[in-house]
């Protein structure tokens, strides 16, 4: 199974993103738009995992019990080389700390931190809205970003849980199934 650990979005953010993406899809019909069901904030991509590794993860992640915290947004952006249009998430100390704790908890189960960590690159939390496979991805994405406008505002939301998801690859794109939920602690 292919697994990742992520934070689900709050309802008000989902509603605002649905409005935005409906408006922008006609301006960029060649992009592959992510479905609202797939929106999340990745904490760690685990990749292929055995049943034993999955069972190893559960008690380690349950033991974390981080305090609830607020997620704030930085605005729309693009990763040109990867061909991704996204909503940036502010890397608040509580979010970065949770991401680091999760990476530490998953290592004994055989999961390594992403290569970017070894290269000293910071965690860049975001919500992927669309992808481009065009030859000139950058130009297509910059046009879309200009069309979206700079005055987008997204209300913050409170994180009350994180989840393990299983990714199922289908001809129509990926579908994500919630495998386990981990509520935030009271501390």
Overview of the molecule:
The protein has 187 residues and is α+β, with helices and mostly antiparallel strands. 30% of the residues lie in helices and 34% in strands. It has one domain: Cyclic Phosphodiesterase, Chain: A. The protein is built from five helices and ten strands, in the order βαββαβββααβαβββ. It starts with a strand and ends with a strand.
CATH architecture: Alpha-Beta Complex
Hey, roughly how much beta strand do the residues contain? Answer: 25-35%
Kindly name the structural category: alpha+beta
Radius of gyration: 17 Å
- What is the number of helical segments per DSSP (H or I, 4+ residues)? 5
Query: What is the count of distinct domains?
Result: 1
State the end-to-end distance. 33 Å
Largest β-sheet summary:
4 strands, antiparallel
CATH topology: Cyclic Phosphodiesterase, Chain: A
Q: Order of helices and strands, N to C?
A: EHEEHEEEHHEHEEE
Query: What oligomeric assembly is this protein in?
Result: single chain
CATH superfamily grouping: Cyclic phosphodiesterase
| Portion in helices | 25-40%
- Quantity of strands, as a count: 10
- What top-tier CATH class fits best? Alpha Beta
Strand order of the largest sheet: 3-1-9-10
Overall average residue pLDDT: 89
